[in-house]
Design brief:
Elements lengths: L4 E6 L2 H9 L8 E7 L2 E7 L1 H5 L8 H7 L4 E4 L4 H12 L6 E5 L3 E5 L10 H14 L4 E6 L2 H10 L11 H5 L11 H9 L13 H8 L1 H11 L16 E10 L2 H21 L2 E12 L4 E12 L2 H9 L11 E13 L17 H13 L7 E3 L9 E3 L20 E12 L9 E4 L2 E14 L11 E8 L4 E7 L8 E7 L2
Parallel strand pairs: 2-4
Antiparallel strand pairs: 1-6, 1-7, 2-3, 5-6, 8-11, 9-10, 9-11, 12-13, 14-15, 14-19, 15-16, 16-17, 17-18, 18-19
Helix pairs in contact: 6-10, 9-10, 11-12, 12-13
Length: 498
């Protein structure tokens, strides 16, 4: 199947944008101008200004001499590219390959897309009518090549759809400028009386090359088809992406869920066949009003389990606002990984088919966020707050085993907090201590356990730890910093037991 392209030409791109933003300019002739070599030059003009003889490239002083009441607005140099990029992203609802054609056009690769709208004529009509209803003056054409589509969109006088293989017939009556030639080449052709492409398209290539250079032949080949021309999409195509256009706009949560189920089935079937699973996925809905609704999920392990992934998305479907309706759904998996045949050992669990824990973590992350879930591994340090380290993923393992020969609290404070203590000396446990304004009477105590400071990391005093139980049965892990040397020592609380 031959490729098909649409070229879209915004005849007054930036001027139309100013009119859309400021409706009062609709009936006012105006131009956009910027300084060049000490004088203001017209960069764009609206239809009313053009009808009064104002053209792009004129000096503003000359333009005002032609039309004294002309309004002049400062041009925004980056506006054209920004608008084209925004419109190219909008066109992704029609095709996954949309490219900017700076300074005033778009190129769409529509191969295999038009049948979803009932054919190329309806497809093109839908695009153009929506752009025009937004306030833009556009022309567009469809052809087998980018060159022919570009030429017919700007200079064509008949049908905007060039049937497959009929590029030459569509180009014959058009001027040389339709081939995107440089002004010097166009002037040379016109000087010789070659005002239409039919006047020189049949000439020997050696003659054309000798008189006009290789550029003319390259442009002819690009328009007729022998030479391929490539475009750069505004958004790189995701390697794992599925699309679902809708015959009628979807406005209900049930319809959105059904679309999501279909896309997940398509994507997961592909991933499973390749031995992969997704780690993150984005579900997008392109609305009728031009806005894009999207929700995202992440998983703790590579997964292509459709039911599980659907449950993760269901937690966020309510955030999608369909408004007037969604006409295209897209599911992307930007991050995928190989699915390991054997799951890693996780908290002393080693089962090849045990995915329940991973899926539970995914559901918790979907509700509370990934930042609410942590996994820690033992680290080789004496100091309690340094004896654990966060794991980067569930696959991380440590060669250091968890220490089980000493009692440790289930909740360890990140930073010990100072407390007031009443205690005999020198090494007796406290009898009373006050924490956050509340006085605790100690009924049972165990200790001390001395933990020395790691002198190769920093200098300071050792710690003597005690496990205390108060009158309510709550247990605490506290320590005295350093020896009792006649002065009042400092005491700290560091953790809580279950």
């Amino acid at each position: 199947m031959s490729r098909r392209y649409i070229a879209i030409w915004f005849r007054h791109l930036t001027a139309d944008w100013f009119t859309i933003c400021q409706p009062e300019l609709k009936d006012v002739p105006f131009v956009l101008a910027s300084p060049e070599r000490g004088r203001m030059v017209v960069r764009a003009a609206n239809i009313l200004a053009e009808s009064n003889g104002i053209e792009k490239g004129m000096v503003v002083a000359d333009a005002r001499a032609v039309f004294p009441s002309l309004m002049v607005i400062d041009d925004k140099p980056e506006l054209s590219e920004q608008l084209l990029n925004a419109h190219a992203e909008w066109c992704i609802r029609y095709t996954p390959i949309a490219s900017m054609d700076i300074p005033d056009g778009l190129i769409l690769d529509i191969t295999g897309c038009a049948h979803l709208w009932g054919g190329e004529r309806e497809y093109l009509k839908d695009i153009v009518s929506k752009l025009r209803s937004s306030g833009y003056d556009v022309r567009a054409a469809v052809a087998d090549t980018i060159g022919t589509a570009w030429a017919v969109a700007r200079y064509g006088q008949h049908s905007p759809i060039v049937e497959p293989g009929e590029q030459a017939d569509a180009l014959l009556s058009l001027p040389p400028a339709a081939l995107r030639l440089e002004p010097t080449i166009i002037a040379r052709l016109q000087k010789l009386g070659l005002y239409q492409i039919r006047n020189f398209i049949g000439m020997p290539r050696t003659v054309l090359r000798r008189r006009f250079g290789q550029t003319l032949l390259d442009r002819l080949d690009q328009a007729l088809g022998p030479s391929n021309e490539y475009i750069t999409p505004v958004q790189p195509l995701e390697p794992y992406q599925e699309r679902l256009p809708c015959l009628e706009p979807i406005v209900t949560a049930t319809g959105i869920k059904i679309a999501l189920q279909r896309l997940l089935a398509m994507l997961c079937t592909r991933l499973s066949a390749e031995g992969k699973g997704l780690r993150s996925a984005t579900f997008k809905g392109y609305r009728m009003d031009g806005k894009v609704e999207q929700i995202e999920i992440v998983t703790n392990g590579a997964s292509c389990h459709i039911d599980h992934l659907l449950k993760l998305f269901e937690l966020k479907i309510a955030k999608i606002e369909p408004a007037l309706g969604i006409e295209l759904f897209v599911l992307e998996a930007p991050v995928v990984e190989d699915v390991d045949p054997v799951q890693e050992m996780l908290w002393k669990i080693r089962r090849a088919d045990d995915t329940g824990l991973l899926e539970l973590l995914d559901r918790l992350a979907g509700r509370a966020g990934m930042s609410a879930i942590h996994r820690y591994l033992p680290d080789e340090h004496y100091w309690p707050e340094r004896s654990v380290k966060p794991a980067a993923s569930l696959k991380d393992q440590s060669e250091t085993p968890w220490r089980t020969d000493r009692l440790r609290p289930v909740h360890l404070l990140a930073r010990p907090e100072i407390i007031d203590v009443t205690a005999p000396i020198p090494d007796y446990p406290p009898m009373l201590f006050r924490y956050k304004g509340k006085l605790h009477k100690v009924n049972k105590a165990d200790g001390p356990e001395r933990i020395e400071r790691e002198w190769w990391l920093d200098e300071g005093l050792h710690r003597d730890y005690y496990c205390l139980e108060d009158e309510n049965g709550a247990r605490y892990w506290i320590f005295r910093l350093g020896h009792y040397d006649g002065n009042r020592p400092e005491w700290f609380i560091h953790g809580f037991f279950a």
